[in-house]
Amino acid sequence: MHRFCMKVYGCQMNVYDSDRVRTALMRRGWREAEEEDADLVVITGCSVRAKAEQKVWSDLGRYEASWRAGRRPVLALTGCIAQSLGKRALSRFPWVRLVSGPRHIGMLPDGLERVVAEDVKLDLLDVDPREFFELDEVTARRENPWRAYVTIAYGCDNFCTYCIVPYVRGRFLSRPAPDVLNEVRALVEDGVREVTLLGQNVNSYGRDLSGGPTFAELLRSVARTPGLDRVRFVTSLPQDFTRDIVDVMAEEPAVCPSLNLPIQSGSDRVLKRMNRRYARQEFVEKVEMVRGALPELGLTTDLIVGFPGETEEDFEDSLSALSEIRFDLVHSAAYSEREGTPAATMPGALPQEVRLDRLTRLNELQDGITLSINRALQGRTYRVLADGRAPRGTGLLQGRTPTDKVVIFPGDEALLGRFVDVRITEAESWCLHGETV
Length: 437
Known about the structure:
The protein is α/β, with parallel strands linked by helices.
């Protein structure tokens, strides 16, 4: 019996993939253990931003002493960071014995068993961006017993100039609808109350399938799964977000009124340089369409500052977009060069201090907007799935409102996995506080 440890960095897709690999290993008789006791450590990492990649490089270096002392643990590097770093990780770190791209997940369990049992190195990097080796596992072992992720599509065909995803996760590929629905049903039977559908662009779902279904049709089918209480989805590309999706969100009670719609910039000039195929006014019209059907919408976005060639006027356009649209939350980032993307070699690269200054100014504006929106919710009562202990404080649980706001409230652990009514008593920028009623 081998012992393994999973370490996950980055997005929900990495969490989902790691949970499936964990399930596959345990069904083969492996036992999950603490890092210091493991024969194998599987690191699933993100390469979307330089900082995330640097974290993984630093983590890999920590294993030198233990490897030289007893050639344990064996390390495997998976996910899009493995595809990005490639064979460099194998050559630089002798204790890394396997690298696997995200589209080779179906070959991982056999590969992991082999590198632990034999003195070999394995390269399972993706070569064909359209080829995919699926792992047919429902996540019986998850980070959260009551909430689960389900990937509905892999890769991306949009090639935004700043984004490395098409190069490390390959071209867009929809999962067959029966596979998605079967997985959702199996998760519900295993106690899951809430499912989040994942894709680099969920709106594109079905366009590569003969005869569909569309994303809206799949979303409706998932929402009607017996026993499933809530459905969320991320992430949506503005130009592909259509009225039929809004109709499903408004008509199906299980679909949460929450939406992540990345704007990336408030400047039309920058959006064009990013190869984002919409203008600011089109984005605003999409938001108005959704809010018209869902008055209480939790709207979040992603926004990059300091893109090559971004002027102060361009940046002011982003600030004015936040003031005009009033997002509930903004996932903001200073532009980070990704080797191999067109933007990495664009003229007009800004000094790091300019990027960070703009990031600070943007965050200060958005913090005020978020706090104002959240304070207006004081006194409201929401149905919340108690899905875990709060990260800080004694006797506190946490969950999310239908609009995807984190709520922290006092409660006994017997409430975990149950829906409770929580009245909001206090608001911060990053969370709400409440009491059960």
